[in-house]
Structure formats: structure tokens, C-alpha cells
Specification:
This protein starts with a helix and ends with a helix. The radius of gyration is 16 Å and the shape is globular. By secondary structure, the chain is of the alpha+beta class. It has 4 helices and 4 strands; from the N terminus they run ααβββαβα. It has helices spanning about 5-15, 20-30, 85-105, 125-135; strands at about 40, 50, 55-60, 110-115.
Length: about 140
């Protein structure tokens, strides 16, 4: 690989799928609220980031770019302008997989909350949303 390609490859390899900054913000808020949960339930569809199996609650903390946040006010979900033939189907597959996993969890009786990366900015509002969902 040369130049930009090598740097891009290095950048992409550094992206984490668990224990991301937005996920940690949500976990800290929930812990401060006295919520008890488990992390990254590998046996559940979509491996929810935060789970309480007894109460059948699951929370996904989604990156706006990777999961194609559709909110018009979200500035983090920008579509790539380069290599569109690669990124468009990849991001579409992510959304389709998310939808399938959410449907499976709902079918199993789970209540689901999706927290978007851009929503962690307003932690007062986020705390209200988490409290309403978890109680």
C-alpha cells in the first residue's frame, strides 16, 4: 500500500467495536443511576452493548457513521465521497443487519433502546432517556 491507502488502512484498523467512548459514557451514566447490566451479550442477536437479561432490556450504542444515522440534524453520519461503490453497499448491509437483529430481539421479548453517538453530547437528556427506558 502507498501513501493515503496505508494511512487509511492504519486508521480503519484502529477503530474499535466495543468499549468505545460513547459506550463508556452511557455505561457511566447508567452505573451512576444504579442500573445493573452485563456487557456485549455475544449469545444475543447483534451482541447488544448493554443487557439486563432478567428484565429483557437491551441497549445498542451506535456510531452514527457505521450504522447510518438517519437524523437530518446528525453531523456524524456523513456519507463518504470516495469509493462510493464500496461504502454504499457496506453501510447498507450494516443497516439491514441491525434491522434483522432488532427484529429478532423484539421477537424474543426484549425492549430495545438505540443510543446514537451524537446523542451523548446532551448528557442531561440522555440520562432522562436512559432512566425512562430502564425503569
Amino acid at each position: 500500500m502507498h501513501g493515503v491507502s496505508a494511512q487509511r488502512s492504519k486508521n480503519m484498523a484502529a477503530i474499535k467495536s466495543t468499549n468505545t467512548r460513547p459506550e463508556i459514557v452511557v455505561r457511566k451514566l447508567m452505573h451512576a443511576m444504579g442500573c445493573r447490566f452485563r456487557l456485549h451479550a455475544k449469545e444475543l442477536p447483534g451482541k447488544p452493548d448493554i443487557v439486563n437479561r432478567t428484565r429483557k432490556k437491551a441497549i445498542f450504542v451506535n456510531g452514527c457513521f457505521w450504522h447510518s444515522h438517519g437524523s437530518p440534524s446528525c453531523r456524524r453520519s456523513n456519507r463518504p465521497k470516495a469509493r462510493i461503490e464500496y461504502w454504499t453497499p457496506k453501510l447498507r448491509r450494516n443497516v439491514e443487519r441491525d434491522d434483522l437483529n432488532l427484529a429478532r430481539l423484539l421477537n424474543d421479548g426484549y425492549s430495545i433502546l438505540v443510543v446514537w453517538e451524537c446523542e451523548i453530547i446532551d448528557q442531561v437528556h440522555l440520562r432522562k432517556v436512559l432512566d425512562q427506558f430502564w425503569r
